[in-house]
Design a protein that fits this description.
With 497 residues, this protein is mostly helical. The chain has 18 helices and 4 strands. Helix 2 packs across helix 3, helix 8 crosses helix 13 and helix 12 crosses helix 14. The chain is globular and about 80 Å long. It is a multi-pass membrane protein.
């Protein structure tokens, strides 16, 4: 076993210490941070699945249903308490850890373990989309599954392992089943499959075709589960329509009403960078994303010039996935919410780290390169700590206290028409919940229950709107009905007159 020099040992101690700090800060922010309205929506829908209700049939839902079942399992274990919400955040942290581990493995394929450790540290630090990577939403599990699929694809292809090809197909399909936008992750591997078929003949081509079969089988398994879940809703056509065409129509409608430029979140924003205006955290984020984009394009071109086929195709796959997701965000996603940057973020960290390493190796004497690398890690630790000190104060204490008051005041079986999802632990008082469905009412081209009829049928006595302005995001007739028949109470609740 080769000996590790004292200098190398010190470098590893520093980088591992930095990783430990960043992971602790991420975990602490995750359990403290206030809950986003999207999180409440997913939690609320998950609780309704726990009650035995079916998406699409019993409540409006325009996503694939996979994510609801882990949420329902959490409620089965922790019950109707605020602890369930924190448990969901802890689950997301575990999923994040797994995703960071696969990023480490992918990065190591390019430059080795030390490079991979630095790239993973940069990813955990990355201010945008830092907050989204602790939230309860399907995007993070989808990203983690896609990273696993990409890693097993590379390993399966290089080792000619059908088992790894099977795992690759399984994880890619799971990623798509959680968030269909992850399709961009799959494009470069499919291109490689196509190139392999065109370049080979005879037995070698037959092996590639046989390798594709376990990949396809892996892809098929989540698809079969999805079909079963769709059939179980008792309204399969509505389910397919809701998660496909309707979802696209809603996104297009909202994008026309509320235009979001692709660079919207790259302007100063204290919600992401912890500080208002121009500040070191903001500039570090900008440097990482811009540097990664430029160097990612360059490395994509370099991948076509390398003599080593293994290195060439590894680089092509990783740069291809990075650029495909970046182009998808800029050109194809109608809405530019920060969570849609999540599939791109690991690769932004990877290619910025590659730029960082290559810059120092080409500009300073070799013996000073480790010092420059470690100095950079220490610098982002300082910036990460500054960011953490602010974010740890943006807590969910007030929200959880409000939820406890509502849980103590209203009977557990009381249906609540919740416009934000914050009440979480109650049956739905109306078919729609949690969403500003009045903003895209013109896209809802299917038969859904009339508000008055459905609320009378369910004997809905309570509405949660949070604030009066929330009534403005539902159809005017629905708003008028609520204002005429309900009166405001405590904690953003409305009670039937």
């Amino acid at each position: 076993m080769p000996k590790i020099s004292p200098a190398k040992s010190i470098q590893w101690l520093i980088i591992l210490g930095a990783l430990a700090l960043f992971l602790y800060w991420k975990f602490d922010v995750g359990i403290r941070r206030y809950f986003d309205v999207d999180e409440f929506a997913h939690l609320h829908w998950g609780y309704n699945v726990h009650l035995g209700n079916k998406p699409y049939q019993d409540f409006f839902y325009n996503f694939p249903p996979f994510f609801l079942y882990p949420m329902a399992a959490i409620f089965s274990v922790f019950g109707r308490t605020a602890a369930s919400l924190v448990a969901a955040r802890i689950l997301m942290f575990i999923v994040f850890l797994i995703g960071a581990f696969f990023l480490f493995l992918l990065s190591a394929l390019l430059r080795g373990y030390f490079f991979a450790a630095v790239a993973t540290t940069v990813f955990i630090f990355l201010p945008l989309p830092y907050d989204k990577l602790v939230e309860v939403r399907p995007d993070l599990p989808s990203l983690t599954a896609a990273l696993a699929g990409l890693y097993f694809f590379i390993r399966g292809r290089e080792g000619k392992s059908r088992n790894k090809f099977f795992l690759s197909g399984l994880f890619f399909s799971l990623s798509l089943a959680l968030v269909p936008k992850s399709l961009f992750m799959l494009l470069p591997p499919l291109i490689i499959f196509g190139i392999d078929l065109l370049r080979t003949k005879g037995k070698e081509r037959m092996f590639i075709l046989k390798s594709f079969l376990p990949f396809a089988l892996g892809m098929l398994i989540p698809g079969v589960f999805l079909v079963v879940l769709i059939l179980n809703t008792d309204k399969p056509l509505l389910a397919v329509y809701s998660m496909s065409r309707l979802s696209v129509n809603i996104a297009n409608s909202l994008s026309r009403q509320f235009y979001m430029a692709p660079n919207l979140f790259f302007y100063p924003n204290d919600a992401y960078y912890s500080f208002a205006g121009y500040n070191p955290v903001y500039f570090s984020n900008l440097a990482i994303w811009i540097g990664a984009a430029i160097y990612g394009i360059w490395q994509f071109l370099v991948s076509f010039t390398l003599d080593d086929e293994k290195k060439s195709q590894r680089l092509f796959l990783l740069t291809g996935v990075f650029l495909a997701n970046l182009i998808g965000f800029i050109r194809f996603f109608p809405l530019k919410h920060a969570q849609y940057l999540m599939p791109t973020a690991p690769f932004a960290a990877l290619f910025f780290t590659m730029l960082w390493f290559d810059f120092w190796q080409k500009t300073i004497p070799k013996r000073f390169v480790p010092i420059a690398t470690v100095t950079g890690v220490v610098l982002i630790c300082i910036l990460g700590f500054r960011m953490y000190r602010v974010k740890r104060n943006w807590t969910n204490a007030g929200t959880l206290a409000k939820l406890e008051r509502i849980l103590n005041k209203y009977p557990a079986d009381s249906p609540i028409f919740d416009l934000t999802g914050e009440t979480v632990f109650f049956p739905d008082g109306y078919y729609f919940c949690c969403l500003p469905y009045g903003q895209y009412q013109q896209t809802l081209l299917f038969d859904y229950p009339a508000l008055e009829y459905d609320m009378d049928k369910k004997n809905t006595l309570y509405v949660h709107a949070g604030i009066p302005e929330r009534l403005n995001v539902i159809p005017d007739m629905h708003r008028k009905y609520l204002e005429d028949n309900f009166q405001w109470s405590d904690d953003g609740m409305m009670e039937r007159k």
